[in-house]
Amino acid sequence: MLVRGLVAAALSIGCAAQASASTPSSKPEPKLVVVISVDQFSANLYAQHRAEFTGGMKTLSEGIVYPNGYQSHAFTETCPGHSTLLTGKHPNKTGISANDWYDKATGKTVYCLADPSVVLADDPKGRSVSPANLMATTYGDWLKDVSPQSRVFGVSGKDRGAITMSGHKADGQFWFQPGFGFTTYVRQGQTAEERLKPVAAFNAQMAADLSKHPFVWDYDAKLGPAAKRCRALEADYETGGRKWRAALPIPAATSPADKLRDLYASPYTDQVTLELARRLRETYDLGDGPQVDLLAISLSATDFVGHRYGTRGPEMCDQLARLDDRLGVFLKSLDKVKGGVLVVLAADHGGADFAERLAGEGYDYGRVERKSWLAKLNAAVRGDLGLSWDPLLADSGIDELYVLGADKKPLPAADQARITAAALARLNRDPLVAGAFDSNALLTMEPAPANASPEELSLAERLRRSVYPGRVGDIVVAFRPDRVPSSPGPTYVSTHGSAWDYDRRVPILFWWKGATPHERILPLDTVDIAPTIAAVTGVKPPADIDGVCRPLVYGQGC
Description:
Layout: H1 2-19, E1 30-38, H2 43-49, H3 56-60, E2 64-70, H4 78-85, H5 91-94, E3 100-103, E4 108-111, E5 119-120, H6 139-146, E6 152-156, H7 159-166, E7 172-177, E8 181-183, E9 185-186, H8 192-212, H9 225-231, E10 235-239, E11 242-246, H10 256-264, H11 268-283, E12 293-299, H12 301-309, H13 314-333, E13 340-346, H14 355-360, E14 366-367, H15 370-385, E15 392-393, E16 400-403, H16 413-427, E17 433-438, H17 439-444, H18 459-464, E18 475-479, E19 483-484, H19 501-504, E20 505-511, E21 518-519, E22 524-525, H20 529-536
Parallel strand pairs: 1-12, 1-13, 2-21, 2-22, 6-7, 6-12, 14-19
Antiparallel strand pairs: 2-20, 3-4, 5-9, 7-8, 10-11, 13-20, 15-16, 16-18, 17-18
């Protein structure tokens, strides 16, 4: 069992911290709660680079450290993962089951935060988003209910990071849109100008700075040993028939669109996100008044870098060194807060390196090519049942399959059941598949006990925590841990989203001034974060949450 193995492994780094647990620690009494999500920051990445951190990550690692945090559901994507961090609920209760789902009634894919009743401040014709699809309240909402004067802000590189963490009642939710700056949504009766007022000056300054000093991603000399360490990871690879070199600097893009894409998938995204968070903190005096305020920050660059370059090359090495440095600057700025500060760091999901690099190291690791795999499955089911059409649709991936008629419309219940059964029989004989399930059966199965360890959940129980009625495929598929259902492209070599621990395990860190360093190696679920913060700040969470409070001070209850 993982716990037993971790106990021995942790002794060399955790004995002093564990021994100090009996030493009284000052109880956190925050007026500002800062919750940081590092997108795609797996427990493996944290462990790999932990000894190298000298800045903000080192500081946060000197608090309460859970190296084995878990996103305990199965669909480990950005939107559902972020929805667990401050709601205290799994995706089967937040309603955010995946980044996208298919609506059989309309025949269209629905983005997790889609809301046609609003428009974007930067582009009225762009993808309109809001918290409307989030079927749970967040810590920020609970805080507002008992303390309306409390201020809540969410800021991120992605809309699904800013919105799902800060909830329904936030004073501002802003995300980075390259070429524009930080944007938000605008409801009827509002204007873009008023909604963007908190970030307008920052956007103008950012645009002016970029016009004078365009961001070039090269090794940063001021990071010292990190540059040498990262450069040593340079190597040549071939993914999807494309030969490329993992190295910095990133070759300069030629088209304006490619330049914006490269800017987005670089450390610059986290740099400006943290700087905006600092500006919002100082502009609105967060933590300086008698009430408790919340600043939710989702840092997206690690995810962009992981997808585009993998998780263990020079690009990720440099990204994490810069993140550590910038986090240090941000944490230092919190010294100005008049009240106490509690900082929590976690992640929406983990991630694995790209299959070709793992295979080159001798691991039996490979890809499942989506289109050809689904075509073979459809052909087999057609033959088994004598159908004249492809009955299975994988609209935004192949871990969720929708059963449809010849006209891509819903089928009568009997036909639906017959095709589902035939497809499941095929899937559960597929050597690439670890398990496939009827989502209706998952929706009606008894959920895992509330006190179940997230590392001991069965595959079905993990999937049960992901499925939400009307927002999940008819069939859900879990591929083998060593087979990744993705096809590499020029800007996409690695992914996440599986039910396996490399995508589920994330670090969870709690830090405040006066905390006694304490390594807690037993698992912690991300849904435990919100009730733990709520207890510290005297806020009562809803009765139907999944998470439980974990006392931050040794020997003291919640």
